[in-house]
Amino acid sequence: MPTEVLPYSPPETTAGRTDRGRIIIAILALGWLAGVLWRLWLGAPITHPIAHADEDSYMNAARAIAGGPEGFSSETPLFRRIGYPLLVSPAFLFGLDFATSYKIVHVINAAISALTLPLAYLLGRRMFGLNTRVALAAAFVAATVPAGVFWSLVGMTDSVMAPLMLGWFLAVHRWVGAPDRKAPAISVGVLTGVLYLVHIRGTILVIVYFAFLAFMLIRKRVGRSGAGLSLVPLMFAVILNQVVIMLIGDRVHLRGDIVGGGTMAVFTEIQRLQVFVASFGTNVWYMCVVTGGLAGLAWVVTTIEMVRPARDAAFRWTAGLALFSTVGVGLGAAVVLAGLVDTQSDALYSRYVQVFVPFWILFGFAVLADQRLRAPARYAVLPVLILVVGGLVIAYRLRYVAERGHQLSYGMFGGPDLMTMTAGWSQFRPYVATAIGLVALAVLLAATRVRRLVIPVMAVVVVANLATMAVMRDRLVEPIGRRFTMPIDLGELGVGPEDTISYTRRISNEAYYVFYHDVYWSEFKPVGEDDVPPPGIEVMIGRYHPGEKMHWDGAEHGFTLLKASEEAHIAVWRRS
User: Fold this and answer.
1) Which of 367, 302, 80, 291 lies closest to 169 in space, CA to CA?
2) Which DSSP string corresponds to 562-575?
3) What is the pLDDT of residues 114-173, one digit of tens each?
């Protein structure tokens, strides 16, 4: 019987692998550039800070680091971190008007946020073992997910936290996979230190990291020398934070109080304990909704992997670190929110956990795409339970509070992506969100069972992410951008660093926050309670309501009107 002759497939040559590597690098580079430009387009309507007063605090600190005037910060002594202001401080080095400096901040944000794409690709290839095409598709999903993109449009720490988290997990995976190498240990320490420098969440991550390090040492997964090397840059970051704060001194004065009181009473007062549980649970539910249930699948796989390992130690313990980090930050955020129950109570405040969404959606698609991680249908029980029970409990909480004459706060900074997905512009819609999460999970599970549909499904998700951000730009970003953009330009009126400037106490919050930054050459302070400018003030900004009591008439104090806006109810006056 003749032997069957199979077609000859020559082995891939070194030149072929090199060419493919160059193509991948080109795709990632162009994807990163497109991501930067896309983020700049999304944020174009924003000319001044919109996330008050946190964003103002970071801009003031960055300005002070660059040698600018004094300013306030809403941070507390305990929670104060200087990493993000230090990063964007070069934008304020050149004495530019604030709007231009702020756009430079946007460029810095966009450049770092867009690094989510190559970092997600490397995680897909190295940690999850995905093939090139699937890893690229999954990386584009992670790089466009609204939870990670939105914050790059404003001057907040969250703009850089998502790629930092991906880089941290990538470094940890590399180190645990090669524990004898020094470079991975040092890179883990550097990134842990940067996370500490950027936000108080970094402190929680440091605590989780210490526990992880102790566990790895006990299990002899890493050596003592490597552990020590990783701690050196971390300690340097802690010291650097305090040194820069000392150098700034009182030029940035804090308005926040030392945390205590309400925060300490979270576990002794039933109302605060209820808010704590509700805040944590809502954030867990939120992550399942915006990932189409994939985060829940990833949590199941991570838990099973830690108990019954099927993959290598690097995968297992990196996934475990990610899970404990997510839980730790979620619990820490819930404690802070419960401590503020006297002043506010949020229906949803997902900002603190949004930084983990790109990682968990990448992990979830890896579960669907890779045979070694392929999840049985029963794994979907957890995300389904989270979505259904979470939606019902949240709806009950909203109704319970409303029946007692109260209302939970709800706004674009609590969950802008969820607000856009559910068209919940004026109210929280937990039932709609739950339905979206359940349908998305069912579709993803069914479609990806056919392996050739995995990449097309991811492409559809990317398109959905782009569409969500376009709607968000139209319905949220543009309106609030207009709200904090004044129709009066001080530079066009000849007002500049040579002028001493002040304002009356009756101007609107929007006008205050805009002109506070536009007066970049000195701290913007009000005149006395009688609204009478002292002799040294040459330019005044006042409320413009002719014929009404709140109107400030500069002519009565020897000032000449330069320009007024009836739309913004604001006027600029110069001493005659």
Assistant:
1) 302
2) EEEETTTTEEEEEE
3) 999 999 999 999 999 999 999 999 999 999 999 999 999 999 999 999 999 999 999 999
